[in-house]
């Protein structure tokens, strides 16, 4: 029964899982010999209820037992067919079995071989690890030995004193090879003196005495050598800069060696150089200043002031001798060109003296300071490069500065040339810029001191000019002449010069001082004009002076600014006054009528203008207007020194006359019965034509 169930199960697997379940259920139900348990049957029936095969069988009305037998028969047939297939393939199965067995044998052999390899590789790996540890240990030892070797070699090299070095230090001359040997000796001295390990070495006891003797010998030798070179600087006509650059700088390491290994000797060399250069440069500047003083041209004295009269007063009055260069006292003129020559070489005194040339002091000032800047720049850079001490410069130049200060203070205390002082102030500013561009600060304090000395002196001289205007004696200055006064010309030239010198600087203090000077000049010129008895002459005098002042300010090539504007307004005001005075002189009745009656309504009942009032005016004008204009023209030509200014005033006067006459003509036309005077009225076009004749000459 068990074999039958197994065969059916196998057959069921070949047919399908559903059929196996059904067959198993049927067999269980139909086999009475077995003790069938019905536990779980209901559940299995519920599961088979929805089975498609069972449903199909039931739908066809086939009995389950018959259907089961059919399935069993089919399974037996399939089983028999399968057995036949196995029988046919039996040889192949045997061969396959043999091959599998052979493979197992081979694989077993390979397993044994690989196991041996694995054991050998493990042994080799341990050997390699041992070798690697030995190699690292040997590498570390080699590295340590190399480090020790290099340190020992360096120690030997640094401490040993080669015979060749001894020979050079003791017997050779100071040259390039000697300098290189000094560097080696310096390194050895530093080595034995700095490294604490060296001080404990036994080798030092043998070497140190030899090194000390070499140091003393080297210090002594280079001291003698450098002192000889310094003495060469004292020889007359020696070009110091060439000697410094081409000779001394080649041996600047000597100074470094002395500074490090012979401090006392270095201080002696330093003091010797300071003493030498101080004396040499002081002598050079003293000689140059003495030569420059022979070239100086005196421009102004304490009496050369704006408000000082041009002639002396007294019972036996005689004109004071004019200074040769009196125009330079108040006008800058060509002297301003010195500001464009700031970088030109310094004057060579003997060449200038041979040509008998004289120069204003600002030219000598520029030349002296050009030499000072070039010499100071060279010396400052040399001290920094050769000695490594910038402070050395100030000790050297204490003497030259004292020589220049003594000269400058003497000149400054006797200087009354305000223009020259202002030029020197501007030159000093330019010199400061030059030194700033060179990035050399050695003259900063000196140039500041010069600037501080110049400004108070300029202010003092300026105040002298101002006081001369304020305290001027009007009676002695006045001349019965309406042309520009020489005092006003001095003032104009002086002001224009200072404005020109202040253009690029905008010094507010100087502008304030110029305003004070202008007010003093205004006050003085008004006092001088008041000396004329006629108002017309007063006006002409003022116009001439104002016009001249404006012209000088413009000729200076500068923007006169508010000072020029002030005088232009004053000129305009006085011109208006003169025009009215000139017209009143020739056409007084006409002007009075126009100003008083022409604006009234001629037909008003109370104050009607009668023909009899305007007829004399019309006929008088018609009879002499051309002659009057000609007289006005001659009057203007003789009154004003500036032709252009005179013609402009004449044109203004004629234009004003035309306006007056036009208003008179309009009034005549409105007067009752005024048409009778039309034949006597002069045509406006005719007057304009006549005015144009004079305008063409303008």
UniProtKB/TrEMBL annotation:
Keywords: Golgi apparatus, Protein transport, Transport
Molecular-function GO term, any one: syntaxin binding
Localization, UniProt: Golgi apparatus, trans-Golgi network
Primary location class: Golgi
Keyword 4Fe-4S in annotation: no
Entry annotated with the keyword Repressor: no
Location of the VHS domain: 9-30
Pfam families noted in UniProt: Vps52_C (PF20655), Vps52_CC (PF04129)
UniProt GO BP: endocytic recycling; Golgi to vacuole transport; protein transport; retrograde transport, endosome to Golgi
GO CC term, one of those recorded: cytosol
InterPro entries xrefs: VHS_dom (IPR002014), Vps52 (IPR007258), Vps52_C (IPR048361), Vps52_CC (IPR048319)
Family stated for the protein in its record: Belongs to the VPS52 family.
Name assigned to this protein: VHS domain-containing protein
Organism of origin: Opuntia streptacantha (Prickly pear cactus)
């Amino acid at each position: 029964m068990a074999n039958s169930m197994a065969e059916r199960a196998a057959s069921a697997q070949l047919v399908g899982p559903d059929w196996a379940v059904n067959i198993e259920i049927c067999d269980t139900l139909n086999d009475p010999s077995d003790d069938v348990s019905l536990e779980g049957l209901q559940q299995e029936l519920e599961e088979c209820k929805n089975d498609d095969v069972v449903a199909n069988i039931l739908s066809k009305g086939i009995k389950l037992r018959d259907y089961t037998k059919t399935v069993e028969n089919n399974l037996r047939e399939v089983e028999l067919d399968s057995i036949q297939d196995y029988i046919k393939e039996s040889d192949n199965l045997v061969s396959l079995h043999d091959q599998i067995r052979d493979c197992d044998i081979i694989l077993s052999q390979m397993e044994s071989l690989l196991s041996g390899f694995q054991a050998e590789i493990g042994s080799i790996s341990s050997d390699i690890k041992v070798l690697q540890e030995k190699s690292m240990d040997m590498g570390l030892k080699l590295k340590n030995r190399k480090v020790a070797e290099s340190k020992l070699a360096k120690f030997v090299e640094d401490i040993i004193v080669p015979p060749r070095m001894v020979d050079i230090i003791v017997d050779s001359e100071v040259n390039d090879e000697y300098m290189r040997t000094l560097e080696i000796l310096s390194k050895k001295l530093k080595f034995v003196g700095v490294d604490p390990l060296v001080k404990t070495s036994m080798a030092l006891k043998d070497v140190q005495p030899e090194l000390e003797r070499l140091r003393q010998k080297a210090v002594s030798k280079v001291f003698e050598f450098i002192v000889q070179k310094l003495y060469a600087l004292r020889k007359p006509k020696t070009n110091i800069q060439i000697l410094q650059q081409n000779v001394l700088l080649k041996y600047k390491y000597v100074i470094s060696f002395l500074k490090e290994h012979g401090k006392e000797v270095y201080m002696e060399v330093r003091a010797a150089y300071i003493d030498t250069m101080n004396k040499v440069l002081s002598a050079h500047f003293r000689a140059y200043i003495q030569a420059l003083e022979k070239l100086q041209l005196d421009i102004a004295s304490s009496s050369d002031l704006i408000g000082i009269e041009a002639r002396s007063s007294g019972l036996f009055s005689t004109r004071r001798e004019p200074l040769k260069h009196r125009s330079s006292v108040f006008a800058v003129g060509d002297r301003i060109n010195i500001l464009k020559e700031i970088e030109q070489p310094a004057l060579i005194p003997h060449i200038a003296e041979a040509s008998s040339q004289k120069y204003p002091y600002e030219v000598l000032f520029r030349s002296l300071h050009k030499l000072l800047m070039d010499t100071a720049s060279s010396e400052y850079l040399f001290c920094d490069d050769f000695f490594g001490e910038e402070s050395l410069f100030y000790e050297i130049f204490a003497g030259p500065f004292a020589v220049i200060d003594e000269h400058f203070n003497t000149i400054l205390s006797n200087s009354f040339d305000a223009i020259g002082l202002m030029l020197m102030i501007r030159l000093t500013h330019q010199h400061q810029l030059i030194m700033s561009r060179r990035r050399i600060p050695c003259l900063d304090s000196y140039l500041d001191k010069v600037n501080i000395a110049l400004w108070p002196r300029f202010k003092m001289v300026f105040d002298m000019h101002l006081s001369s205007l304020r305290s001027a004696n009007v009676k002695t200055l006045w001349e019965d002449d309406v042309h520009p006064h020489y005092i006003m010309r001095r003032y104009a030239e002086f002001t224009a010069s200072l404005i020109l010198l202040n253009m690029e600087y905008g010094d507010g203090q100087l502008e304030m001082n110029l305003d004070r000077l202008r007010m003093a000049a205004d006050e003085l010129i008004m006092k001088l004009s008041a000396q004329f008895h006629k108002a017309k002459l007063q006006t002409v005098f003022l116009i001439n002076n104002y016009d001249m002042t404006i012209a000088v300010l413009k000729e200076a090539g500068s923007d006169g600014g508010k000072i020029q504007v002030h005088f232009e307004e004053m000129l305009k005001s006085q011109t208006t006054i003169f025009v009215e005075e000139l017209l009143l002189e020739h056409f007084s009745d006409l002007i009075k009528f126009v100003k008083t009656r022409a604006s009234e309504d001629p037909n008003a009942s109370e104050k009607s203008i009668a023909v009899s009032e305007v007829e004399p005016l019309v006929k008088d004008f018609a009879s002499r207007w051309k002659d009057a204009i000609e007289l006005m023209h001659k009057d203007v030509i003789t009154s004003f020194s500036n032709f252009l200014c005179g013609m402009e005033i004449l044109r203004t006067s004629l234009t004003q006359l035309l306006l007056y006459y036009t208003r008179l003509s309009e009034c005549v036309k409105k007067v009752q019965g005024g048409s009778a005077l039309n034949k006597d009225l002069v045509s406006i076009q005719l007057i304009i034509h006549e005015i144009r004749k004079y305008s063409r000459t303008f």
